[in-house]
Amino acid sequence: xxxxxxxxxxxxxxxxxxxxxxxxxxxxxxxxxxxxxxxxxxxxxxxxxxxxxxxxxxxxxxxxxxxxxxxxxxxxxxxxxxxxxxxxxxxxxxxxxxxxxxxxxxxxxxxxxxxxxxxxxxxxxxxxxxxxxxxxxxxxxxxxxxxxxxxxxxxxxxxxxxxxxxxxxxxxxxxxxxxxxxxxxxxxxxxxxxxxxxxxxxxxxxxxxxxxxxxxxxxxxxxxxxxxxxxxxxxxxxxxxxxxxxxxxxxxxxxxxxxxxxxxxxxxxxxxxxxxxxxxxxxxxxxxxxxxxxxxxxxxxxxxxxxxxxxxxxxxxxxxxxxxxxxxxxxxxxxxxxxxxxxxxxxxxxxxxxxxxxxxxxxxxxxxxxxxxxxxxxxxxxxxxxxxxxxxxxxxxxxxxxxxxxxxxxxxxxxxxxxxxxxxxxxxxxxxxxxxxxxxxxxxxxxxxxxxxxxxxxxxxxxxxxxxxxxxxxxxxxxxxxxxxxxxxxxxxxxxxxxxxxx
Length: 503
What we know:
Layout: H1 4-11, H2 13-31, H3 39-57, H4 66-81, H5 86-108, H6 116-132, H7 145-150, H8 152-190, H9 192-204, H10 207-212, H11 216-242, H12 258-282, H13 297-302, H14 305-325, H15 330-361, H16 365-389, H17 395-413, H18 415-426, H19 435-440, H20 446-450, H21 460-475, H22 486-502
Helix pairs in contact: 2-3, 2-11, 3-4, 4-5, 4-17, 6-11, 8-9, 12-15, 14-15, 14-16, 15-16, 16-17, 21-22
């Protein structure tokens, strides 16, 4: 049986349909061939405004706690127009989508009662319901079915009359066309003026010549974008109105016998304590002696770095499973705390190895991303340790907050700019820079590359690479108002500055 929200959506089908079509038009204007322009943050704000309108139309009160999710969405929208990085553009969209789903979960359901596993499960259900509701926008309201049945006889009679008249018209058109196939060539052969006029008229209405003037690709793209935007928002609310997840907290039970968990955690804790002791004694306390003999920075950084990240993620999963499966036990809590604390030491070890590598081989985007991830993972484990002693702690919401805040700072920090600044400042000579890599990154690096003194570049290949890079930027199409992007606008200024110095 349909719930009250589904019934309200069907009763107000025309309103929801028109609102979705209007949203589709705005969606098309903002995003068609323009995923990172000034209209992107405009669309995020419009999307949130439409969402509030949909909720009010369904009779749902706006929750104050939803504002924090909306704030994160708006900040990610602004961060998108501030950078030219495709990586950030993609993950900004992913972040916006996840925060939007969390905001609606908070609006409709008692998400504070959800545990970590239930959040993950309900998110998959929400996404699945969203997808299968894509066709609802074309189904109508079903509101006047009874009235349609009562009037079926009368409407059938009228329809039959219309069909009969339409069939007669078609028969007449077909007969005329068949006759004209024979008559027209005869008339055209009998009079040159008539033939000339008819040929000009035929060329004018020729569908092929008309289609050649139309950009079919653009029309199809606009139509698809419009339909996607309209269906996107309508299907989301049709799906979430249909769901029934409210009040479903995780089951409170005594859990399994903790002896198995204590045995497992005890063995793992013993191994990790030995490993962590080695890290403290032979890595952290030997900062003055450097690396072991016979091992280069590259070998040392790669030797065990990715393995440590893998072990950290495994430990995170193992601790969560132990908390969910086994019952309350002080010894188990202590052992899980030891495992988590040792994992933090492993994270620090992995970060230190990467820092050693960066000090020798400079920064790349992947190295910055890894260091950021390790920092986030460390904060997450702080929450995991706290959740061991506080059963009602909202670990999933804590992780969402940590990842959201850290990612928003990461996005606004524009890592490509930081990479270029670090590499340029730590290079003894401009010719030693891997200029090709810096030009391979987004246009965020252009203003910093333009600051390099041409007189300090002794390598002609470096000079040629920079000249080609800035010429390509100058040769690109000028940004329209809709496509304006801060990073690309600054890159155009940098190109003008660099090429002006050359002249």
